[in-house]
Amino acid sequence: MYIFTISSLGLTISNYSDNMRQAAIVMFFFIVIFILTSGLISPIASMPHWAQQATRLNPLRYIITAMREIYLKGSSFSQLLAQFGPLCAYGALAGVWAVGSFRKNG
Questions:
Q1: Is the Cα torsion angle 22, 23, 24, 30 positive or negative in sign?
Q2: Using CA atoms, how far apart are residues 96 and 28, in angstroms rounded to an integer?
Q3: Which residues contact 92 (CB under 8 A, 6 or more apart)?
Q4: What is the C-alpha to C-alpha distance for residues 34 and 59, in angstroms, rounded to an integer?
Q5: Range of the domain at 82
């Protein structure tokens, strides 16, 4: 689901970009922000309250939290639904936006 979500975001950015270089620069910007606010480098709990709320828009947060729960706690799929639900919603929204923003250039 995470790969689908990021691919959909990449397609959306590509749909609005004029060339591949512009799309790569914009996607690089988003990926850096996603990594910094995902909880991979610093815990989400140590961020200010407004930043903790902003990380809810970050799809990488959910996969990092799920991986941490799987590797450290041995969580089952039913225990990961709190991470999987928002990721599915984010993926569905990004997929619809990618398809809706597509226009054929010919």
A1: positive
A2: 22
A3: none
A4: 8
A5: 2-101
Is 42 inside a domain boundary? yes
Query: Which amino acid type is present at position 12?
Result: T
H/E run at residue 106: none
d(CA 7, CA 16): 14
Provide the token pair at 7: 């691919």
For the record, the structure tokens of 22 come out as 């512009």
Task: Judge whether 106 lies within some domain.
Answer: no
How far apart CA 4 and CA 44 sit, in angstroms, is 24
Give the total number of structural domains in the chain: 1
- pLDDT tens digits, residue range 14-45? 999 999 999 999 999 999 999 999 989 989 99
Could you read off the pLDDT of 72-96 as tens digits, one per residue? Answer: 999 888 898 999 999 999 999 999 9
